[in-house]
């Protein structure tokens, strides 16, 4: 399976976020640790300030 292929946990997490949450690569890169709630299995979406 694709999600079990990477040996490092951080790489598995990135693939799981991309696939499971439907994130694009640049959206995943902009995530911060504080955006992810592992207890509730949710992530917070922030609106980017474009000013």
Brief overview:
The chain has 51 residues and is mostly helical.
Can you give a write-up of this model?
The mean pLDDT is about 80. It contains two helices and two strands; from the N terminus they run ααββ. The longest helix is centred in the first third of the chain and has 12 residues, at about 10-20. The protein has helices spanning about 10-20, 25-30, and strands at about 35, 40-45. A two-stranded antiparallel ribbon has the order 1-2. It is mainly alpha-helical and about 50 residues long.
Strand proportion = 5-15%
Radius of gyration (CA) equals 12 Å
Instruction: State the end-to-end CA separation.
Output: 42 Å
Given the structure, what is the number of helices? 2
Poorly predicted runs: none
Helix content: 25-40%
Order of helices and strands: HHEE
Strand order of the largest sheet: 1-2
Q: Quick one: overall form?
A: globular
Task: Please outline the major beta sheet.
Answer: 2 strands, antiparallel
Alpha-beta classification? mainly alpha
Overall mean pLDDT stands at: 82
Q: Please provide the count of β strands.
A: 2
List keywords for this structure.
globular, 33% helix, 51 residues, 2 helices, mainly alpha, 8% strand
Topology:
Layout: H1 9-20, H2 25-29, E1 36-37, E2 42-43
Antiparallel strand pairs: 1-2
């Amino acid at each position: 399976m694709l999600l079990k292929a990477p040996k490092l946990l951080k790489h598995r997490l990135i693939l799981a976020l991309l696939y499971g949450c439907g994130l694009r690569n640049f959206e995943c890169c902009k995530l911060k640790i504080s955006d992810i709630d592992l207890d509730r299995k949710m992530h917070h979406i922030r609106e980017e300030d474009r000013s």
